[in-house]
Structures are given as C-alpha cells and as structure tokens.
Amino acid sequence: MRLNRLDLTRYGKFTDCVIDFGKAVAGRPDFHIVYGLNEAGKSTTFTAFLDLLFGMHPQTPYNFLHPYGAMRIGAELEIDGATHELVRLKQRSGSLIDARGAPVNDALVSGALGGISREAYRTMFSLDDQSLKDGGNAIMQSKGELGELLFSASSGLAGLSKVLSSAAEEATSFYKKRSSSTKLAELKRSLETLKAERNATDTFAAAHAALTASYLQAKAAYDGAAGELAEARTRHTELTRILTALPLASELARLLDDPAMQADLPRPPAEWFALLPQLSRDETRLQALLQEKDRNIDQVAVEIDSIVVDEKSLSIASHMELLADGSARFRAAQGDLPKRRLVLAEQEGMLARLLTDLERPGDDNPQALVLPATSTAIIGDLIERRSGVDAELAAAEREFERTRNTLDSLRREAADAGDKTGVIDAEALARLDTALARLTGSNLVSRLSVEERARRQQQRNLDGRLALLAPWSGDLDALAATRSVDIRQIEIWRSQATAIDRRMADHRNRHRDLVTDRVAIEAGLASLMASGTIDDSEANALRRERDNAWQVHVGALDRETATSFEALMRRDDMVAASRLAHAHDLAGLRQLQQRSAENTAAIERQAQLLDEAQSEYAALAQTVAAFLPDRLITQDDALERLATLESWMGRRLDALSAQDDLHRADAAIADIRAELDRYQSELLAGLGQASPTAIDEKKLRDAPLDVLVAATNELLVRHRADSDARARHETSVTDLSRELTERERDWRQAQAKAEAWQAGWREALGHTWLSDKAGSVAVIRDMLQVLAKLPGILRERLDMAQRVSAMERDQAQFRTEVAALLSQFDDGGSADDPLSAAARLLERHKTALRNQQIVHDKQVELSNLRAQRAGLVTDLAVHTARKTELTAYFGTDSLTAVAGFLDQAKERERMEARISGLREQIAQSLRASSFAEAEMRLSDTDIHGVEHEAAELAARIEDLTDRARDLYAEMTRATDKLDAVGGDDTVARIEAKRRTIFLEIEELAGRYLTLKAGVFAAERALHSYREKHRSAMMNRASEAFRLITGGNYSGLATQFDKDREILIGVAHDGGSKLAETMSTGTQFQLYLALRLAGYEEFAAVRPAVPFVADDIMESFDDPRSTEVFRLLGEMSNIGQVIYLTHHWHLCELAKAAVPEVQIHRLP
Amino acid sequence: MPFRFVHTADIHLDSPLRSLALRNSELAELIGGSTRQALVAIVDLCLEEQVDALVIAGDLYDGDQTSMKTARFLASQLQRLHEAGIAVYVIRGNHDALSRITQELVLPPSVKIFGARAEVVESAGKGLSVAMHGMSFSKPQAPDGLLPRYKSPVPDAVNIGIMHTSLAGAPGHDVYAPCNVADLHAAGFDYWALGHIHQRTHHQGARTVIMPGMPQGRDINEAGAKTISLVTIADDRSIAVEERLTSVAQFERVSVHLGGVVEWRDAAAAIEAALLAQRERTASPHLVARLRLTGETALAWKIRRDIDLMQAEAEQRSERIGNTWIEKLEVEVQPPAATRGTTADPVSELRQLMRDDILGRSDFRDEISDMVRDLLADLPPESRHFAGDDQSGFDRFIDGLLVRGTEDISARMSAAERDDS
After folding, report:
1. What SS3 string covers A79-110?
2. Helices (H) and strands (E) in chain B — how many of each?
3. What's the pLDDT at B373?
4. B116 and chain A: CB distance < 8 Å anywhere?
C-alpha cells in the first residue's frame, strides 16, 4: 500500500490542506520529508493518516475547529497496483467512502495492511524519539536475547521482556516453593488460624456426649437427695401437727367445763339484742316531745284572742273599686277640662275661615254646602281627563301631518331616480355571470403559467443539449436529418473492431518477433562467415576457377600457368580443408540459411496479413465515418470513431428528445390558450348583450383577459347594487301610504273624544251650587279642594263639644258618691275634698283585710299542733307495749335488768362457737375426717415420744437441705455447660470463611498456573521466532548497523550463553561488545538497525506499507544522521518512507544523502 | 378439615456457600448463614400457614457436619414447631445417614425420625386420616431401591411417602436408592415427598410426586431460585401444591454479549444492563452472578489482560443496582475475525507459534504438568479439585490451562505499549 496523497480536508487545525506525495516512480526512492515548524501539525498529520486507515476514535480530540459531523480526511491510496480515492468521515458506520460518496468496505484497507490493527501499525511502522528510547531500553532489558530483540524489532514492541518478567513476578507473588511471604502461604496461615478458632469454639458430638453423661449423673444424685429430704419433711410436718393439736384439745376441755355453759338461761330472740338500746332511748324521748306540744298549743290560742277585725270596713268592699276608679277620673278631668275648652274655640275659628274661602261667610248651615260624594267624584274625574283628551288630539293631528309630508317627498325622489338608471337585461346578466364563474372555476390561468415555466426550462435544456453537440453545428432539422444508427450495431462494430485490432496486434507482434529472429539469424550467418567458413557457392566458384586454370595449364603447360594453377589448387585445397574442418559449422550455416529463407517468407506473410487486417480496419472506420458528421471525424482509428459515434448518438438522441419535450410543452400551451380565448369571446359576447356601451366606453374589445374579467365583475356588482336599492324604495312607499290612512283615522277619533268630554262637564256641574262657575275648570278644581276639608272640620267641632260636657258630668257624680259613703262612718273627717276622703276610706278597708288573714293563719297552726300531739300519744302506747313484753320475759320491770340478761346470753353463744371451732381445728391439724377420730388419735398419742422424734427430724432435715443444695449446684453447672454449646452460627461462619479461602486458593492457583504456562510458552515461541527470522534479519541488521555507526562497528554477530543466544556488536578492530554495554546512542542505533531490518522482513513477504518516522535523530550527529537518511532512502526502494521533521538542516542532510528525496512543506 | 404440610429436603444446614463473592465481607455477613435463614423461613412459613406437619426428606446436614451448634440450632427451630403443635417427619438421607449429631440431640416429642426399617405413622386428626410412610438411609449408600421395602398403603387413609432417592439410575448402578418414577406413581401412595436432587422437579403422572430441590443453593451449580412445597390435601383428597420461595441468595450465570463493542465503558454498560435484567428476573433477595463475557470485540485483548479492572467495574455497577454481587468473570471474548486469523502482526505470529507449535510439544506439556503437580502438592487438599480428580480430569485441565496461558500472555503482549494514547 502506498499513500499518494493525503487530504486534511477538515481535521484538527487543518482545513483543505493537501499533501501530495505523487505517484511512485520506478527506480526512484520513494522517500518523502514532511517539513513543518513546531505546532505545524506533524503529529496531527500522522494521526490523521492512522484515522484514515482505521477510522476516527469516537472521542477524538481533533474536533476543536471542525465539529465531529464535519470532520473529513481524504486520500489517494495505491493498493495492489490500483489507485483508490478514499474519504474517512467521523461516524459510527459506513465512515469510509469513495470519491463519489459510496460506502467502501473497511476490508479493502485492512486487507492491504495484512490485518494488523491500528496499534500494531503504530508500533510496527512508525518511529519517534520515545519509541527509539524505549527500544534502547528494551535492548538493555532483554540482555541481548536475540529472539526478543528480533521480535521487538519486527513488532515495534519494546516492553516484551517487561511483560514476561512482570507476568512471572505476578505468578511468584502467589506461589514460590518454600517461601513464606507468598499469597498462598498467607492464605494457608489464615486457614490454620481459622481452624484453631473453630476448635476453640466448637463442641463435637463426642464432647457433647460426655457433657450429657455428667449432667445425667448429677441429676440422679440430686434427685436422690431431694427425695430423702422430702420424706423427712413430711414426717416432721406430721409430728408438728400433733404437737399443734395438743394445746387446742386442752382449751376445748376447759371450755366445756366452764360454769357459764352449765347455767339455765332462757334464749331470747336474736333481734332483741338490737331492739334493747332503741327501746331505752325512746322511753325518755317520747315523754319530752309530748310536753313541748302542749306548751305550743296554749301559746297559739292566746295569740288568736289578741287580734281585733274591723267588720264594718269589710262590709263596704263592694264600693272600693268604684272609689278607686272615680278618684282617678276625677283627678284626670281636673287637668284636662281647660285644654279641651280651648281646642273647641280654635275649631270654631277654622270653620269661619273656610266658609269665607267658599265665598259663603257666615252661612248658617255649613252642612248644606257639603256636596254629595258622587258629584265630587264625577267632577274630579272629568277634570283629570281634560288634559289627556287635549294632548291626544294635538298628537294625532301632528302625526298625520308628518306622515303626509314624508310620503310626498318619497314619491318625488322615486320619480327622479327612475329617470337616472338604465335598464339592463336580467337574462343577459345571468349568462354573463355563468361565463365568468366557469372561467374563474377553471385552473387554466395557473396551468398556463406552469406550462410556460416548464417550456422555458425545456428550451434551456434543449439549448444545453445543442451546445453539447459541438463541434457539430446546425439546426435541429439538420440534426434530425443526420444518420442514426442502432446502439446494438455500434456494439457489433466495436466487437469487430476489437477483434481486428487484436489480430493486428498479433500480426505486429509476430512480425516483430520474426524480424527479431531474422536479426539473430543474420548475426549467426555473419559470425559463421567471419569464422572463415566458406559457403558452398564460394567453394564452387573457387573449384570452377581451379578447373579453368587446369584447362589453361593443360593447354599451355608452361610455368606461368602451372604457377597460376598451383596457386588456385592450393587455395581450393585450403578451402576444402577448411570446409572439412568446419563441417559442423557448415551444417549450421546451411540450417541458418534455410531458416533465413523461411523467416523471410513468414515476415512477408505477416506483413500481408497485417495489411489485410489494416484495410479491414480502415474499411470499418470508413463505414463508421459514414454515420458521423464530418466535423466529428477527427480520428482515423475505427475504435475511437466508434467511441465518438456512440457519444454522438447519445448526445443526438438527448437533443432530439429535448426537442420533443419542447414541442409537447408548446402544444400544451397552445391548447390552454385556445381554451382561454374561447372564454374571452364568450365574456365579450355576454358583455355586449348586457351593456353594449360598457365595452366601447372602456375599450374592452381588445383588452387582455384579466381586464375583461375585472370589468365584467364590476358590471355585475354595480347592477346588483342598483336593483337592491330600487326594491328597498318601493317597499318604503307602500309602507308609508298604509301608515297615512291609520294616522287620519286616529285624528278623527281624538276630535270625537274632546266633544264628549265637554257634554259630560256641563251635565255634572248643573246639579250643584257651583253651576254658575262652570266656565272655569281651574276655579272648580280649587273650590272642590277647599270644600273637601269642610266635613272634617264640622265633625271635629261636634266631637270636642260632646267630650267637654261628659267630663263635667263625671266630676259631679263622684262628689255625690263619696259624700254618701262617708256619711256611714263617723270618722270626723271632712267630705269637702272628695279625693282625700276617698283615700281614707280605702286605707281603713285595707287594714281590716290584713287582720282577718292573720287570725286565719294562726287557727291553721293550732289545728296542726293538736294533730301532732295525738301521734305522739299513739307512739308512747306502742313503746310501752314492747317494753312490757321484754321485762315480762325476764320477770323484771326495768330495761336495765333486761340488758344484763341479754349480755349473759351473748357470752354463752361466743363460747359455744369457740368450742366448735376448736373441734374443727383439731380434726384439721390431724388430717382426721372427724373430731371424734382426732380425739381418739390424740388420746393414743405418746406426747414425749412425738416431741423427741420431731427434734431428731429437724436436725436431719437441716443436713439433707445442705446436701441437696450442693447437688443442685452441681447439676446446674452441668446444664450450663450443655447450654454453653449453643445453637449460634459461629462455627458455620468460620467454615464459610475457610471455604471461601479454599476457593480463593484455587482461583489464585489457576492464575499462577495460567501465567506460568503463558510465560513458558512465550519464551519457547520466541526461540522459534528467532530461528525463523534470524538469518535474513541478522544480515540486514548487521549491514545497517555498520552503516549507521559509520564503520565503528563492522557488523553484528551472536554468541551462545547457556541456553540463550546473545546479540553482540563486532567492533571494527575485531573486538566484540555486548549490546547492554554499548553507549546509549549506539543502543539507539542498534535498535534502529534492527527496526529497519524488521521492516524489510515484513516487506519481504507482504506488500509494503508506508513507514512514518517522526524526528528520531535529535541526538544523532550529522554523519550518523546522513547515514540514517541513506538507510531510509534504501528502505524507500522497498516501500514508501515518510519522515516528519521541524529541522531544516535535516532536510539538507537528507538531500545530500538521497538526492531524489521529495520535501513537502506543511503550511 | 384439610390436611396441610410443608415439604422440603436437602437443607444441608450450615453447609458453607462456595463462592468467591463471599470474599466481600459485607456479603458474607448477609448471606453467610443463608442455609440457616432458609430453615428459619421454612419454620416461619409453617407457623404462619398453621400447617399440620413439616416433612423433611433427608440430608438435614452434610455428612461431615460435626458441630453440635448446628444440631442445637436445628433443635431450637423444631422446638418452635413443637410449641405450635406442628408435627415433624424426618428421614435420613445419604449425607446424614451416620450423622452423630442427630443421635446426640434430644428432639421435641412431636418430631418423628424414621428408622432404617420402613415405618408408617397414622394420624386421624381433624377428619382426614393420614398415613406417613418413611424410611431412612442406614448407610451413606443404598444401591438397592428402597421402594419395595415400604409398607403397603393404609386403606382409606391419605398415604404420604417420604423417600430420599436419586430417582433415575437403574438399581446397582446408582448408589442413592434409585427408583423409577413410574413405579412411584403406581405404588398407591397419594403424595411422594422426595429428596436428594437439588433441583426442583414436579414429576407429572397419576399421583403427586415432587422433588422439591434444596431450599438454598450453595454455589453456581445450584443456581436459580430455590423453593419448598406447601401442600394442601382437601377433604375430597384432592392435592394442591404451592411453591414458596426460600432462597436468600440466588446464584445465576449471566451471559454478556460484547460483540462489536469498541469502548471500554460501553462494555461496562453492557454488563450493567445484563445484571439489571437478571436482577429483575431474580426473585431472591440477593443475586450472586457469574458473568460470562462473549462475542467478538476489539476490546478482547484488553479485557483479557485487565480482567481485574473489569471485575472492579462490574462490582461497582452491581453495587449501584443493589443486592447484586459478582462472583467471577469468565472471559470468552474473541478479537474480531478480521484480526484473529493469520495477520502480519508479529504478536499474532508469536501466538500462532505457541498454539500450533509449542503447545503440541510433549516435552513442553510434561514440563507444565510437573509444574502443576508441584503446586498441587503444596495446596491444602480441599483446594486441589480444580485440577481434576482423576487422570482424564487432569489432562483436560492441562489442555485448558495451555490454551488459557497462551491467550493471556498474548493479550498481555498485544496490549502492552500499544494502547493508543
């Protein structure tokens, strides 16, 4: 693969930058230097190249100028002899495309690269300062091991030995025999710790069994002791009971012997014990109560006697209400009367004023002036209606006048308008309307514009096609007239021409070969001739000359002829001898001569055949030319003419078809126009019918269609507006005429109403004293208002007079009544003032009433007291009866004595209860079913024996208790031990940890073995690799090393060191130097030499790929740099080498070393 | 009243989980005692559902389980059932046939442990008369089928058979009481409560034959959700079986296809997505995943070399998901086909040399075999199984080791110094 051109179209800082390496030229080194200052983008260029080959990284940082979507790298690559225009875009798939944008399979590139990855490319085919340095280190690390060196030189991988040693180290960190610091040893220690922990924590079944056994033993011992203890306790308890029952039995015996139990005392009823204290209390209480009641009764009787009741005053009770009311009225009249009299006088004055207003002053009978209500109402109603009647009449008259005027003016307007507007034929208008609607409804106008636009496009298209026909010129008719030929025919001709052409080439080749042969034959002949061989004709001529000389000599037989003959004979002999000696050459000569003859014939034949073919070819060319316009016949070659013809036929066809398209467009436009014209004349005709003047006025006859349409529209709109206005006017006139009639009728009705009112008025006033005032409605209305007050005033005056007289009458009557009552009492008071007299009477009556009430209350109290006293007497009788019962029972007379007897009875009862209690206690103590049984047992008991046994048992129980306690503690300890085994998961968790460690060991062991096996395999493989590549690479590397070191080293060699093979440098003085002991610079150079050899090794079995070096000679002196350039130059004979630098002097050095180097500058 | 019971087997109480994920002490704390948690869950279920009995069809413990702590824990749980009046029927399986810890233990009276001779326990409780048939392994092996030795079904009773059996194999070949499923269906028992196989199976047929599987898986080979059966035998003797989840932690293999992935973080995202999907499918509280990375990816070498980094990445993401733990990563990714074959890359050439030339050399193989044996001798016996338990297993291990070693070292060489910086 080769990079012909790299387009940094949009990438990093680059925009449309192109580095053109040109095509490789055979025999010239393919060596390029890309020169650019710092930051010019050299490493960007290299990355771009890699991105082109392998695709851009999804997060490539080169998007700081052009966004991801726009990034683009292009290149022309040469792959297996073919050139490919490729473009790489930044996208997920299909990122590699060709010049036309079609996607290209990445396999094209990866195939050309031999399937190596981007990273492998970078390490294998590029070099920079760092990789050179790493390479030098690798040489150190490998300690010169040849396999590793060759491998790292080929792969560009510097860290191989580091990889192997770190893998081995990693393995060793897990396991190393007899080492205690490895991971395995550590894990084993953890296992031991866990095992110990488990043993400390766990209880095994066997240990558990032992624990259980000791527990059971302790339990049995405890159970035995506890049983014994219980037995002793039971017996002790039994003895204790007997000892307890004994004192009880003696108390019982004592009680039974008590004299109280023997006394003959009656058994009073039980309730008497409670009754007695009650009786004792009642005896004194009832007596005291009775005495108090008697005292109270006497006192109340005395109080009643001391009160006197005034009976006389009580007898006048019926007058009391009258007196109270009369007093009140008398006192009210005394205040009111003067005021009432004043009011009456005022009312008399008002009446007099009213009569004056009615123009009847001093009328004796004002009541007669009052009008009956019916008359007043009728007159009032008429007065109210008067203004309404008048207003109605005026309004009706006004409306009638106004309507009449409006109608007149409308009629005048209608007459005027009728004159102005002309009349248009409605039918013509409808037709016009329809025509217009059809036109606007069609899309003819828009279609016309579309078609016209299309036509212009097609015209341009045709012009373009015609232009493409150059150099042919002429019009389309001429074009159509040119001869046409079928494409298939062209193909036939082409295959014929190709066949002939191939034949001609064959003939020529054959001819050329034959001519070459002839040259060879002639050369052969010449050489045979030159070597002295005489051909047959020459020999024969000499023979003939000798024979002639012989004949001459035979004739003459003199010395001269003899000498002549001898000379000729000698020559003939010489020739014959020579020919004999060269008999083999002679045969060759003859054969050559024959071949020469055949060759000449063959040459002629080939020339002839070539001529034939050429003329056939020319004839074909002629045939083709017949179909070509003259101007296009520029070549004689039939194939070229065919190509021209094919292209011509294509362009001709294009032009003609473009013309067809144009024609079709024209036709379409013509159709649309014709249709539009039809619409136009239809419109014109319609307009003419509808409004002939309009056409002429606006010069529409020849106007364009849109103007015509506008005019028609206008006419139609105007006409519609006119007819609408006329219709509205007619409706108005009809409406007004009808309204005028109605108004007139209303007016007449109003007049009739006014007359009716006048008649009613006269009628109403005629019957009253007001008839003389009928002329003025206003006077009547005022009189009526005044008159309306008269009845009220009259009524009030009469009322007031009546009330004054009633009051005066009441006062007189009260005085009389008081005087009459007072006469019955001689109280010495005066009757002049009736009011104070009445008050005295009332007071006396009240005092009498109060005394009467007190007497009544006291009498009620007295009767109550008497009833209570009777109750007490009864209670006392009952009490005495009970007391008698008790005293009689005990044969005594006082309650105190009874109390003594009752106490004695109670004591006896208590003792009896104690006796039965003791009996029960004794039976219970001895667990006997009855007292009798217990009594019997007690009587049998040896008291001393019992006491002795009890004491003995108490001591024994104490001993047993101690023993049982000890045994219990022992049993508890055993139980605790068993419980301590526990059901927790400590052991299970330890086991889980151990299990995990076992797994971890397995895992790590697996990794250890994998690493070890891998390292071993790799080491072996490196040996194989060395064997495979050593011979070729060693030679190349040795030579390169010699060159780069400028002869300081004469080359490289190897030497065995145990199982390894070590690379050594051979110094020019014959001494050898281990790679690790060389100077750093020399190590770099050794590495470089190996890398160059590696490149050649690659290129030896695969197509080369571009090798990119990035300023690797910073630390080299000029002579060495020159040598490196020379080496790179040599390398570029195998594959393309690109050297990136920012040192101009290196460019100069390169030019000196490789004059053909091409230098490209980065902008 | 219906008769209800819980049927489980193969509890393997306190048998440790086998997973590298337990290196994480947090996880070890959470699920280290999960066989215990499962047993507690079973007892809780019995109490909640107020069942009549708990049936344990063998293998309460591992055979080498000798801690009395384990037995006492069992006793304490059975005591809870006893206090609730729930009967327990236990047979011994191959693992606990000779277990001393059960003999040592005093179990509540409501626990019936069947002996080595077939027994039948009848109970006529609340209407249904139930006959429990059972028989224990007397030795760790029972090459003859046990079915013929069971007592005949009790007439008119619901007959429940409890048996520890490997089912399939023919008598004589399989040492764990082999028997035929068809024979079980035909034996006249209403329900067969089986044990021994750790994967749940409902053997369809005329009768209800259930292998409930273990209630808690212990390693990746006991993957999936683990359950027990809650069985209800109605008054009409119809049998309804409900499956109830008991596993606290669930082992799952999770395959992650990384085909075409180019970016490291895309690979990590794919792993997270796969874990998330598996987490959603996982019923148990904790998911312990073994990740298998497959597919052709340009990252193949990098992943192989930096498998530790990838594991850390996966662990970080699983932590984010929650209750999800990574046990191990298995790398089966391949470089894209285009770069896998013979290429001009010397690394490929070296790899090809190793595979085609070096690995085939018998002296090389012997050298590696010796190295493996040396190491094995230094390992604790419990950690030696990875290299195979017999010669053919050892050979297979060596085969795999050679390929793995080659691939790993190639990955290291390929990726070294070549990371595009």
Report:
1. ECCEEEEEEEECCCCCCEEECCCCECCCHHHH
2. 12, 15
3. 92
4. no
Question: pLDDT tens across A773-798, in order?
Answer: 767 777 788 888 888 888 888 888 88
| Per-residue model confidence as pLDDT tens digits over A686-727 | 777 777 666 666 666 677 777 778 878 887 888 888 778 778
**Residue in B closest to A93 by C-alpha:** B260
3-state secondary structure of A672: helix
When the pLDDT of each residue in chain B is averaged and rounded to a whole number, the result is: 88
Model pLDDT, residue A811:
78
pLDDT digits (tens, 9 = 90+) for A404-435: 888 888 878 777 765 555 556 677 777 778 87
Tell me how close the Cα of B61 comes to any Cα of chain A, in angstroms: 12
d(CA A741, CA A730): 18
Could you give the strand order of the β-sheet that contains B249-257, starting from the edge strand earlier in sequence? B249-257, B286-294, B324-331
Q: A1006-1048: per-residue pLDDT in tens?
A: 999 999 999 999 988 888 888 888 888 888 888 888 888 878 8
The 3 state secondary structure assigned to A1088-1099 is HHHHHHHHHHHH
Residues of chain A contacting residue B20, judged by C-beta atoms under 8 Å apart: 996, 999-1000, 1003
Helix (H, G, I), strand (E, B) or coil at B150: coil
Contact residues, chain A, for B354 at CB < 8 Å: 1017-1018, 1020-1021
Report the residue of B30, B72, B345, B358 to disrupt the A interface, i.e. the one with the largest count of A CBs within 10 Å.
Answer: B345
Per-residue pLDDT reduced to its tens digit, A640-679 = 888 888 888 888 888 888 888 889 989 989 998 888 888 8
Contacts 24+ apart (CB under 8 A), A339-344: A340/A800, A340/A803, A340/A804, A340/A807, A341/A804, A343/A800, A344/A797, A344/A800, A344/A801, A344/A804
* A205 vs B66, B380, B419: nearest CB: B66
Dist. CA A653–CA A249, nearest whole Å: 160
Query: CA-CA distance, A603 to A509, in Å (whole number)?
Result: 11
**Cβ–Cβ contact B273 with A under 8 A:** no
Say which of A188, A983, A1010 has its CB closest to residue B404: A1010
pLDDT tens column, A541-590: 888 888 888 888 888 888 888 888 888 888 888 888 877 777 777 777 78
B378/A contact by beta carbon, under 8 A: yes
CA nearest A184 in B: which residue?
A: B379
| Residue B401 distance to chain A (closest CA, Å) | 6
Distance CA A358, CA A498 (A): 157
Q: Can you read off the two tokens belonging to residue A1029?
A: 């590549």
Instruction: Find, among A750, A742, A752, the residue nearest to A404 by Cα.
Output: A742
Cβ atoms of B113 and B136 within 8 Å: the answer is yes
- Nearest CA among B273, B267, B226 for reference residue B247: B226
β-partners of residue B6 are B54, B230
pTM: 0.54
Query: Is A354 or B248 the better-scoring residue by pLDDT?
Result: B248
**CA-based Rg of chain A, rounded to a whole angstrom?**
83
A chain contacts of residue B14, beta-carbon cutoff 8 Å = 985, 987-988, 991
Closest by CA position to A221, among listed A1024, A861, A951, A964: A964
- As a whole number of angstroms, the distance between CA A1030 and CA B87 comes to 83
Work out the minimum CA distance from B122 to partner chain A, whole angstroms: 32
Helix (H, G, I), strand (E, B) or coil at B360: coil
d(CA B70, CA B65): 8
Radius of gyration over alpha carbons of chain B, in Å?
26
Which domains, from first to last, does chain B contain?
3-245 (3.60.21.10), 248-340 (3.50.80), 341-421 (no CATH)
Cα–Cα distance, A170 to A1012 (Å, whole number) = 9
